[in-house]
Amino acid sequence: MSNQPVAGMGLRERKKRAAREALSWAAVRLATERGLENVRVEEIAAEVGVSARTFNNYFPSKEAAVCSFGNERHTRIVEGLRSRPADEPLWESLIAVVAEQFSRHGGPDREFVSRVRLMMSTPSIMGEFLKSNVSAERRLADEIARRLGADAEVDLYPRLVAGVVGATSRIALDFWLHTEPGRPFLPMLTDALRQASAGLPVPDTFPAAPAAADPPLIPRESVC
């Protein structure tokens, strides 16, 4: 992942973005360790070295701060898509930028993702997270439409693609969490996106079914 400043973003905006991201990750860390109901805004702010008032300048609630980490990833995907070559096929661009964002910090950590998913299944967070996902999906659809010379208000295709990208990423992550430890996530994600881009043709063969595993520790219907 490149750490180069986002084109068109000034120093002040970059600092605000970094502070927002730091507060969000502090909220996620504390909430996964203690449960969000046992975390105060003041404690989240103290993790980053700012005041509770500063926290409230960025987020209206603890729930919004927790859900912002996913929203930031979506924002970087949109920015990444905008920076890809204009003549690159759409799906090649999408696969590249989605894989790039999921590979940040060395890729997802299985235990951490499992804890986050459990936390996200709580009612107080789920509503905020779903609202955040809808907004993020729409921003991606708008960028896809811009790239194609379409209009997401009247053309269905950009919104379909944005929805497929989001759903495919979530399903790939869910599938990876329930596979054997040590299996890398990024090849699985890339393969899933390529299958989606090809219209999900039926494979010629399927791998042999593995031996029955213990029941998963987290519900498959939970969101992340």
Describe this structure in words.
There is one protein chain. The chain is mainly α. The protein contains nine helices and no strands. Helix 1 (11-34) crosses helix 6.
What's the short version?
The protein contains 9 helices and no strands. With 224 residues, the protein is mostly helical.
Name a few traits of the molecule.
224 residues, mainly alpha, 9 helices, globular, disordered N terminus, disordered C terminus
Beta content: under 5%
Total helix count?
Answer: 9
Give me the secondary-structure category: mainly alpha
Number of strands: 0
Largest sheet: none
Which H/E pattern describes the elements? HHHHHHHHH
Tell me the overall shape.
globular
State the share of residues found in helices, binned by percent. Answer: 55-70%
Spatial separation of the terminal alpha carbons: 21 Å
Radius of gyration: 19 Å
